[in-house]
Amino acid sequence: MDNDGASPGKIFIGGLAKDTTLETFNKYFEKYGELTDSVIMKDRHTGRPRGFGFITFADPSVVDTVMEEDHVINGKQVEIKRTIPKGSSQSSDFKTKKIFVGGIPTSVTEDEFKEFFSKYGKVVEHEIIRDHATKRSRGFGFIVFDSEKVVDNILANGNMIDMEGTQVEIKKAEPKKASNPAPGPAYGSGGSYDSGPGAGFGGPGGMYGSRTGYGGSSRYHPYA
């Protein structure tokens, strides 16, 4: 996890029940989108959970949807805050080889998805996100190129491109973390999570409609 907490897809979660496991934590937030990092902070002396943690989404815009809703994990309502204020210029300044693609026509196959983006540069990873139960496309996915420059070049022409006659949205995505290093600076002290650098962020979002993200019956709003 980033020690300074400055990541556009990263949120702070406070008020966690002490018996919340990382598995439960991840499962709860995975329904909103792909996770690239997660951690429940623990006391470095006792090893006991301190009641707060962090989640990083691959698509920073998912945070808008998460911020709209109330959240109850393990029977306890938790508090969600941004680690970067909404609208911060930092949200698009980071370097990455990975892009998020939203509004993909459901008829597009994995091979067609890769082939389409291969004209921009070498594709090393590609995935259209599918419903776990039905395996149907959820209308969004991710592409990883072999160079950050390819991503910058694509986005230099704007956030909308034409795929199969449909305008799809592209934006930078958070790369997956290789591992979870030791916890960074504590947010507050003595188990408090509301007085450190993570405090004070929040505000209404709502670019992407319902929690199901793209596809299905959810509301897709093109990038403004």
UniProtKB/TrEMBL annotation:
GO terms, molecular function: RNA binding
GO process terms (BP): regulation of gene expression
Subcellular location: Nucleus
A Pfam family hit: RRM_1
Annotated Gene Ontology cellular component terms: chromatin; nucleoplasm
Amino acid composition bias (Gly residues), ranges on this chain: 187-216
Stretch list, region Disordered: 171-224
Domain RRM, residue spans: 9-85, 97-175
Protein's UniProt keywords contain RNA-binding: yes
Alphabetized InterPro entries for the sequence: Nucleotide-bd_a/b_plait_sf, RBD_domain_sf, RRM_dom
Keyword annotations of the record: Nucleus, RNA-binding
UniProt cross-references to SMART domains, sorted A to Z: RRM
Record bears the keyword RNA-binding: yes
Protein name according to UniProt: RRM domain-containing protein
